[in-house]
Amino acid sequence: MLSSVVDWIVQTVNAWGYFGIFAAMFLESSFFPFPSEVIMIPAGYLAYRGEMSLVAAIGAGIAGSLAGALFNYWLAYRFGRPFLLRYGKYVFLHEENLEKLERFFRSHGEISTFNGRLIPGIRQYISLPAGLARMKVARFALFTALGAGIWVTVLALLGYFLGAHQKEVAHYLHNATAVALLVVAGLSLFYWLRHREKGGGL
Predict the structure, then answer these.
(1) Rounded to an integer, what distance in angstroms lies between the CA atom of residue 77 and that of residue 197?
(2) Which among 31, 62, 86, 181 is most buried, taking Cβ atoms within 10 Å?
């Protein structure tokens, strides 16, 4: 059963091509709870089989993630908190969730738009407090692209190096997530120490 589902997903990603990867990652990065693992791991596997370019697949994934994040950022920047609270309920965003995201952003600073991209449950919405805080769009795009780039690359490489061992994907995905979170912790600590040495200036 699992093998049949995986085969169907791989065939679907292959049929969609690079634009499909871009579109799916755009959705995953905005409000639609679309799991990036479902797209990027099969894309990496297709690259292993020579049916896709690994670099192009990763590029499409990063571009889609950034576009979706910029869309969320723009909504928050342009329409503000009342708009998000009014319509957010239709995409599972409630006031309590938004407040948690804002606290996360305030606690970690602008770097949260980087490390938030690697944390499940936060990556889709971290753009919102950045937009509300009117973070400079160039810095937002840079941090978002870096964070999304790590996650997308990890998933694509996972699919690529697992190759024919499709049944092992779930096991190794858990390990890949753990490694990604460790990287986030290390980079966040480095950023915090550097930020403190400079007296709090961003």
Answers:
(1) 30
(2) 62
**Cβ-contact 180, 120 below 8 angstroms:** no
Question: CA–CA separation, 21 vs 39, rounded Å?
Answer: 7
Confidence of residue 183 (pLDDT cuts 50, 70, 90): low
**How far apart, in Å, are the Cα atoms of 141 and each of 18, 63, 100, 131, 145?**
21, 11, 22, 11, 6
* Residues 163 and 36 sit within 8 Å (Cβ to Cβ): no
How far, in Å, CA of 143 to CA of 138, rounded?
9
32 DSSP assignment: S
The answer to whether 71 and 131 are in contact (CB under 8 A) is no
Residue with the larger pLDDT of the pair 22 and 13 = 22
